Each structure stands twice: as C-alpha cells, then as structure tokens.
Amino acid sequence: MTSARRIGAPDAKNRGLLLDAAEQLMLEEGYAAVTSRRLAGKAGLKPQLVHYYFRTMDDLFLEVFRRRAEAGLRVQDRALESAQPLWALWRFGTEPGFAKMTMEFMALANHRKAMRSEIAYYAERFRERQRVALAAALQRYNVDTRDVPPVVWTVLMTSISRFLVIEQGLGMSGGHAETVAVVENYLRRLEGEPRPVEG
Q1: Burial group, residue 167, by CB count within 10 angstroms (0-12, 13-18, 19+)
Q2: Residue 15 structural domain
Q3: Is residue 147 part of a domain?
Q4: Residue 22 sits in the same domain as residue 107
Q5: Which of 174, 28, 171, 12 is nearest to 101 (CA)?
Q6: Are residues 62 and 48 in the same domain?
Q7: Which residues form the HTH tetR-type domain (predicted)?
C-alpha cells in the first residue's frame, strides 16, 4: 500500500514565498505564466518544492485566491467602517491592482471549476458585507431605498468601478470622465468631499 505524499506545513516560510511569487507573476504576466518552474525561479527555490507545498497547481491557485480574498475582505471591512463608506467602496473598486487580480482569477475560473466555486463563495461574502454597510449609510443619509435597494447600490458601484479599471487597462477612456463625474457628484451630495485615506 502506498502512503500519501507528504505536504509542507501551511505556515512554512517557503510556502509563503511561493504564494507571494505566484501573485507577482499573475500581476506582471498573467496566470498562464505561473508554472512550477517559473514560480520556483521567482521565489528563489527549487521546482520540486512547488509540489511539496501544493499537490497540484489548482491547489496553489486556490490558496493564492483565498489568501488574497481574505486580505481583501479585511481591507474592505476597514474601509466600510470609515466615516465615508460610499467613498471607501468606490475607492476600493477603482484600485487597479485589485481589478487586475480579479480579472486573472476570472480568466482562471473559465478553465477550473473549483476556482469558479471559490470566487462565487467569496464574491457573495464581499457583496453581503457591502450591502449591510451601504444599507446603514443610506439610512443615515435619509436616502429612500424603495426604488433602488442597497444591494443594487453595491452592484452598481462595484460593477462601474471595476469595469472602468478594466477598460482603462485596455486603453479605453470613452465616457469614463463623464461616468466618474456623475458617480462622484452623487457621492459628494451624500458624504461631502472625499477625505484622505487613513493609515
């Protein structure tokens, strides 16, 4: 009887180096550049160590995604707890690095069912936290949400901000300035001028 292959500890330093290197490769060259050989080279490790810490490349991608998603949830939670949660959500969605990574994971999910399920799971967590924060903010600002419920606000704000970043990455800009002006003028009416980001 064969024994199960040994896997490195989840908190091992080399494992963290591999996850960091995978993120960097995805941001710089796209997910297709993340091979065990390229990944090991970027991390300064031997290629065999990739499969010592991750049984498959799918396991690696899932762990990169989970780590990034958990960090994103923490950042978003802090932003939504700020004095200007609407501005915070808008800024969060227009951060180019976040949008680029999201696109890489979406492309990866086209080929990997497990990734698709994980993205959906985390996306629902992001959206629910956004909905709760926006519902409280809109109530505080006396906004009637019967016609446009808080969850619709979250979909609109995150979709518009993310799509603008994606189009900018493609070199497109038509309608962007006008769209940003409409959104930001509305945010100013509710929350005033955006304050500097803390910390």
Answers
A1: middle
A2: 8-54
A3: yes
A4: no
A5: 28
A6: no
A7: 12-72
Considering the domain architecture, whether residues 79 and 149 belong to the same structural domain is answered as yes
For the record, the structure tokens of 43 come out as 């991390």
Read off the tokens for 78: 């802090």
The 8 Å CB, 24+ separation contacts for 77-86 are 77/129, 80/129, 80/130, 80/133, 81/133, 82/198, 83/195, 84/191, 84/192, 84/194, 84/195, 85/133, 85/134, 85/136, 85/137, 86/134, 86/137, 86/157, 86/187, 86/190, 86/191
Cβ burial of 144 (10 Å; 0-12, 13-18, 19+) is exposed
Whether residue 90 is found in the same domain as residue 186: yes
Say how far apart CA 55 and CA 50 lie, in whole Å. 8
Tens-binned pLDDT, residue by residue, of the chain (199 aa) = 444 555 655 667 999 999 999 999 999 999 999 999 999 999 999 999 999 999 999 999 999 999 999 999 999 999 999 999 999 999 988 888 887 888 899 999 998 888 999 999 999 999 999 999 999 999 999 999 999 999 999 999 999 998 998 899 889 999 999 999 999 999 999 999 999 877 5
Question: pTM of the full predicted structure?
Answer: 0.85
Same-domain pairing of 40 and 118:
no
Q: Is 35 helix (H, G, I), strand (E, B) or coil?
A: coil
Q: Tell me if 162 is assigned to some domain.
A: yes
Classify residue 15 by burial, with Cβ atoms within 10 Å: 0-12, 13-18, 19+. Answer: buried
